[in-house]
Amino acid sequence: MSRFKLLMTAAAVAFAAPAFAGDIMITDPYARVSTMMSKSGAAFMVIENHGADDDRLIGAASDIADRVELHTHISDANGVMQMVEVKEGFPVAAHGTHELKRGADHVMFLGLRQSLNDGDTVHVVLTFEKAGEVAVDIPVDLKRDAAAMGGMQMMNGAPEGKMPEHKNMPSN
């Protein structure tokens, strides 16, 4: 990648415009896949609620995947980390934030219909109980530091960069 293209990609990621709907603001969104051959990917962001009432992220949609779900990581009785769908969604307290981040709550893309390349943009529509729909153009950033996952690199005892078990993944 040329130095110019690299700088332009970095600028696009660094200056992704916040998305708004009602009292909800989405900041610092980014998406990624673990490998270029991945059939799944994820999106992360900060959800800010500037209103006086609690709200809840209850869904997400995008045409880049067969299914788009809200997920989190949980540890089972043996300490094995698993990704699971959170059907009830994620609460966002009044005047509060809820961070979707690696190793925790996130938007999951299952059955990717296209590869996600660094610098691409993914269009996602988030649905909130009160604020309604928020359209977000999310930059793909494959260079985000793996340390952003905190201690998740050692989940399942798998080598760094491997995905944890996933309860809802379709079998191939």
Automatic annotation (TrEMBL):
Entry keyword set: Signal
UniProt keyword annotation of Signal present: yes
Gene3D superfamilies (alphabetical): PCu(A)C copper chaperone
Signal peptide coordinates: 1-21
InterPro entries found in the cross-reference section: LpqE-like (IPR007410), Lxx211020-like (IPR058248), PCuAC_sf (IPR036182)
Pfam families (UniProt xref): PCuAC
Name used for this protein in its record: Copper chaperone PCu(A)C
